[in-house]
Amino acid sequence: MKITLPLALGLAMTTAVWAATDLHAGHHAGSPPGGAPAARKPVSFPPTLKAETLANMRDHLLAIQEITAHLADKQFDAAAEVAETRLGLSSLQRHGAHEVAQYMPEGMRQLGHGMHQAASRFAVVAQEAGATGDVGPALRALSQMQSSCVSCHAAYRLK
Ligand code: HEC
After folding, report:
1. Which atom of ligand 1 is least distant from the CA of 87?
2. Which string of b and e fits 95-122 if b means at least 16 CB within 10 Å?
């Protein structure tokens, strides 16, 4: 698996964004699922990019489902691989992140980046679980990554 390089990068850059995202999600605990719809900031993407982004989002959800199944089967390397290639920093190219980022408000861009970094961090923790056999830290890292999904959905919607 070739996840080491982007990983080191992500770890170096983000603990802060990731921690902030986590706090942000905590802040929403107790509000209705998805946060108050009226409060979500509408963001404009060109139509093709919007369709691609939503398809990409559906793949994010699929990836999380696959990761969860791999964790249940103690297939830690497989879980790490899905996370890094489909959600992590290694996925940025594949997702055309550069193209889409220019249409995002700064806060949204940061949440997106935080998600990719948290996914790469999960990949490392999942690989460690292969050595220790303890799935707990991997589940926690997965939850922290998912808090980025929750925070962004609570704050933004596409026009
Ligand atoms: C940087 C912001 C951001 C992040 C991070 C993010 N999303 Fe989204 N996602 C959106 C926006 C914006 C929409 C469109 C919502 C709307 O317009 O109501 C969306 C829509 C979706 C949809 C609906 C797709 C459809 O066909 O309508 C799914 C599923 C989804 N996201 C899953 C995820 C998952 C899973 C994650 C985390 C791994 C994630 N998203 C992370 C911004 C984000």
Report:
1. 38
2. bebeebeebbeeebebbbbbbbbbbbbb
Provide CB contacts within 8 A for 50, sequence distance 6+. Answer: 158
Measured from the Cβ of residue 126, the count of other Cβ atoms closer than 10 Å reads 28
Cα distance between residue 77 and residue 124, in whole Å: 9
For the chain, percent of residues with pLDDT exceeding 70:
75
Q: State the sign of the Cα–Cα–Cα–Cα dihedral 58, 60, 1, 7.
A: positive
Which tokens sit at 76?
């830690």
Residues lining ligand 1, CB < 6 A?
54, 57-58, 60-61, 64, 87, 108, 111-112, 115, 148-149, 152-153, 156-158
Whose alpha carbon is nearest atom 36 of ligand 1?
A: 149
Q: What is the pLDDT of residues 100-146, one digit of tens each?
A: 999 999 999 999 999 999 999 999 999 999 999 999 999 999 999 99
Å from CA of 155 to ligand 1 middle: 11
